[in-house]
Specification:
alpha/beta; Arc Repressor Mutant, subunit A; 24 helices; Gln/Glu-tRNA_Ligase; ATP-binding; ligase; Glu/Gln-tRNA-synth; glutamine--tRNA ligase
């Protein structure tokens, strides 16, 4: 096209513009229009070309307004050398004092930028030459001092305490992190379209009605960002859903928008009320409040009406192929694809009235998806009462049909979903456009997976059925209810999602990274207490008081302003069996004959005087003497202890699976059930804990000094508390 106007020999500048136009123009229908301007030398610079491309992206409908287009691209605008000279003079005059002071160390790019802002369509190279010339005239040639590198300004060093401060989430917001989740999501807003500018998204299909529908959409939403979190209520949410919750609710929050919690309740046989309740609980536990709680079933009447309209438009038909026949990527085409519209309308009505059995008829849409799947099912027959609509329906819509239309009804601006739904993007756009309704934009992001676990509903059910775990909230699982029961704070899970980041690629993470997030939050939030898992009785023979003493223990030793609690101290105390040895090894610093230790917070040092053993030779009691810390020689170690303790049960958890990828047949040939770790749970039934924790409620969290972080389990009863170990105080090097 260009050669027909310019001849066979094209100059390099024109060739470059043509190449860039072809490479960057998303909608090829405008290519001839754009090439005409380049060939006629009306678009001469890359700056003009960029403006032309942006104009076309913002005006997707034909015909383009030629006058408006030319004005937006600077067509016919002639910038004279005199204008460039005057603009550069004005900028240099403005910065004259700084130029004379800094000379050639001054940022010349600033001069260039300001001159270009005064003359939008001026050639950049010409402006640069004029700047160089006028600066040389003002400053003269460069001296040796000008040629020396400008010393870099020393960066203010961040205080170590600030660097090391933990990331803490409040209401879903992450603080003191390299880049908080909200900062990342505000950054994503730069990549995503603005509300109402859906047509600027690559691959978005524009129809003659698109702009009018978008205008109506903006009138309804006021230009507000709208997202939704659309779980199926047929299972418990897991750690991967935490990323989806943070992304959908967080993106709306970061951009001043709203987020719906919408249950995709289109499979009545798999849905239970407990799942609806648990999903909402987990969303709120993570710190998010839905703008509205909706259900796909709220829209069943409208979806049915649209299905009739789809048939009338010749875009859907009733099919009688069996499920087995249409499975896979290359099923045979339906022999009923071209059946008359009126016939499909009658048969679809028969489906609704229950005249077909399950699997005897489906409503299918006439399209081919990205993955090659042809004519996806829109409706199928199911004689299962629905938990909300009862027996009103015996036909239910599928995800492929329901999802995009529910998004349209709720005027969602950004339909955020995981990468596996990318193959459904074309059907998403197709269906909205086939019905001439508002079409949102589907954006995909990478799933979040963890090693050493399974999250599939089917596999968790198998674990429960075989007795490998107790239920969906067994603390060895990575469902959100299980993580809460184990004691993971919601803030830690949100922090973890922020650190994983908003990635397009799938992220598979090690559990110890989540555990590190938990330690950071619990260190700031969990008050200290003392507990002994394997008790050894210690009798103080020279106890300094005829009655029990009270010891003040700081709730947070690093910040005593956060309060204290009292624990009794009397002649009988209990320590960990592992804190005593009869023989002292090199490097061992705790209690042994001839090697005293301090009792944490008590202000006393104890020394062994007598070792009492049972008939088998096992140490069952120590008799010791005590000395006040301020007069005793400083001991090598201080150990925790309890006195007048309460018996409690402590559950110690390890990884549920032995291998990183228990579902991978190459790693675990016998299947995931064969990989269950037999030592994933150890129950200590007669542990001892100090009385300061007696008023704790389920899910309250503590740091048991020197042992780890623990959470009160809902199994706790009057007189017998149960604690779950959330994480140890330090990461096990073998797990990293």
């Amino acid at each position: 096209q260009a050669r027909s106007a310019l001849g066979p020999a094209l100059d390099k500048a024109t060739g470059t513009l043509l190449y860039n136009a072809a490479a960057r123009l998303r909608d090829p229908k405008h290519l001839g229009f754009l090439v005409g301007y380049i060939a006629r030398r009306e678009i001469l610079t890359d700056l003009q070309l960029s403006a032309a491309l942006e104009y076309m992206r913002s005006h997707p409908l034909e015909p383009l307004d030629t006058v408006d287009f030319e004005q937006a691209c600077g067509v016919g605008v002639c910038v004279t050398p005199e204008q460039i000279e005057e603009a550069v003079e004005a900028v240099i005059s403005k910065h004259r004092a700084e130029l004379l002071a800094e000379r050639y160390h001054f940022n010349m790019g600033l001069l260039m930028g300001e001159a270009r802002s005064r003359l939008q369509w001026a050639d950049g190279k010409t402006i640069k030459n004029e700047v160089d010339l006028q600066v040389l005239h003002l400053l003269g040639p460069k001296t040796e001092a000008d040629l020396e590198k400008k010393p870099k300004a020393a960066k203010a060093r961040q205080a170590p305490s600030e660097k090391q401060k933990a990331a803490v989430v409040e209401n879903g917001e992450v603080g003191m992190e390299t880049r908080s989740l909200l900062e990342q999501l505000r950054g994503e807003a730069l990549k995503f379209h603005k509300p109402g500018e859906n047509y600027k998204t690559e691959g978005y299909v524009v129809t003659p009605n698109t702009m009018a529908l978008l205008k109506q959409h903006l009138t309804i939403t006021g230009g507000q960002v709208r997202t939704r979190f659309p779980p199926e209520p047929n299972g418990i949410l897991h750690i991967g859903h935490a990323k989806a919750i943070n992304f959908n609710f967080g993106y709306a929050k970061a951009n001043g928008g709203i987020c719906f919690l919408r249950y995709d309740d289109t499979n009545p046989e798999k849905e239970e009320e407990k799942y609806f309740t648990a999903i909402r609980e987990m969303v709120e536990w993570l710190g998010y409040e839905p703008y509205a709680v909706t259900h796909a079933s709220d829209y069943f009447d409208q979806l049915y009406t649209w299905a009739l309209e789809l048939i009338r438009r010749g875009q859907a038909y009733v099919c009688h192929q069996k499920v087995e026949e249409i499975k896979g990527h290359n099923p045979p085409p339906s022999p009923w694809r071209d059946r008359p519209v009126e016939e499909s309308l009658l048969l679809f009505e028969d489906m609704r009235k229950g005249k077909f059995g399950e699997g005897e008829a489906t409503l299918r849409m006439k399209l081919v998806m990205e993955d090659g799947k042809m004519d996806p099912v829109a409706y199928r027959v199911k004689f299962t009462p629905h938990h909300r609509t009862g027996d009103k329906w015996c036909i239910y819509p599928t995800y492929d049909y329901t999802h995009c239309l529910c998004d349209s009804i709720e005027h969602i601006t950004h339909s955020l979903c995981t990468k596996e739904f990318q193959a459904r993007r074309s059907s998403y756009f197709w269906l909205c456009n086939a019905l001439d309704v508002y079409c949102p934009v589907q954006w995909e992001y990478g799933r979040l997976n963890l090693l050493y676990t399974v999250v599939s509903k089917r596999k968790i059910i198998r674990l429960v059925e075989t007795g490998a775990v107790r239920d969906w909230d067994d603390p060895r699982l990575f469902t959100l209810t299980a993580l809460r029961r184990r004691g993971f704070p919601a803030e830690a899970i949100n922090n973890f999602c922020a650190r994983v980041g908003v990635t397009v690629a799938q992220a598979t993470m090690e559990p110890h990274l989540l555990e590190a997030c938990a330690r950071e939050v619990l260190n700031e939030q969990a008050p200290r207490a003392m507990a002994v898992l394997e008790p050894l009785k210690v009798t103080i023979t020279n106890f300094p008081s005829p009655k029990a003493l009270e010891v003040l223990v700081p709730n947070f030793p690093a910040d005593e302003s956060r309060g204290f609690h009292k624990v009794p101290f009397q002649p009988t105390v209990y320590i960990e069996e592992t804190d005593f040895r009869e023989e002292v090894d090199k490097g061992y610093k705790r209690l042994a004959p001839g090697q005293p230790v301090g009792l944490r917070h008590a202000g006393y040092v104890i020394a062994v005087q007598n070792i009492i053993k049972d008939a088998s030779g096992r140490v069952i009691e120590l008799e010791v003497t005590c000395t006040k810390s301020d007069v005793a020689e400083k001991p090598k170690a201080f150990i925790h202890w309890v006195s007048e303790p309460r018996v409690c049960e402590v559950r110690l958890y390890e990884r549920l699976f032995l291998h990183k990828n228990p579902e991978d047949p190459s790693e675990v040939p016998g299947g995931f059930l064969s990989d269950v770790n037999p030592d994933s749970l150890r129950v200590v039934r007669n542990a001892l804990v100090d009385s300061s924790v007696l008023s704790a409620r389920p899910f309250d969290k503590f740091q048991f000094e020197r042992l780890g972080y623990f959470s009160v389990d809902p199994d706790s009863e009057e007189g017998k508390m149960v604690f779950n170990r959330t994480v140890t105080l330090k990461e096990d090097p073998g797990k990293a």
